[in-house]
Structure formats: C-alpha cells, structure tokens
Amino acid sequence: MFKDPLSVCGRIRRTEFILTQIFYAIVYFFVLIFEKNKSVDRWIEITMLLPIYPVISRGAKRCHDLDKSGLYKLVPFSALVMFFSAGNFYSCRHT
C-alpha cells in the first residue's frame, strides 16, 4: 500500500484512494484552523499545495483501476464513483 505515491502510472484499490482523500481532508482542516489564527503568516496556505500532486496522482491511478482515463477525474462527482465502485481485477491495461 502507498507504493510510489507520486507516479500516475499503475492502479490503486479503493482503500488506498479513500485513505489519501481522508489524509488530505485532515490537512485541509488543520490549515483552516491555523488560518483563522492571525499570528500565523501566509506560509500556512502554501502547505495546502503540498499534498495536491499526490491526491491528483492517486485519483489518476484509481481511474486506471476502473478502466478509465486519468482525465475522468475532471468529471464532476467522479470522486463518488471512485469511492464506491469496485475495481476491474481482470483487466491489466495499466500495470
């Protein structure tokens, strides 16, 4: 699990995708809390940019697991489909 998190090639299971999304939500929550504190500089907003690429690459890998292009992530509400759809185990188009 979490092997090669920065690559967009390959496939990941639903569990790994959901854990990545939960991690990003937790980071976002803490950034919102620290942003309300006026003693913290603007650097806290930069920390939101750090997990963006791993989240995008994980989404592309999850799309590959569903036998869709990585661009499928751009479709509105596609994350809900990726959360609840089972992957295609027998197709090895993207390994």
Protein architecture, described:
The protein has 95 residues and is mostly helical. The protein has one domain. The protein is 51% helix and 0% strand. It has 4 helices and no strands. Helix 1 packs antiparallel against helix 3. The longest helix has 23 residues, at 14-36. The two termini are 15 Å apart. The relative contact order is 0.21.
Envelope shape: elongated
Number of domains: 1
Q: What is the tally of beta strands?
A: 0
**Which structural class do the helices and strands define?**
mainly alpha
Q: Runs with pLDDT <50, length 5+? A: none
Per DSSP, the total helix count is 4
Termini gap: 15 Å
SSE string, helices as H and strands as E: HHHH
How much beta, percentage-wise?
under 5%
Task: Please tell me the overall pLDDT.
Answer: 77
Rg over C-alpha atoms, rounded to the nearest angstrom: 15 Å
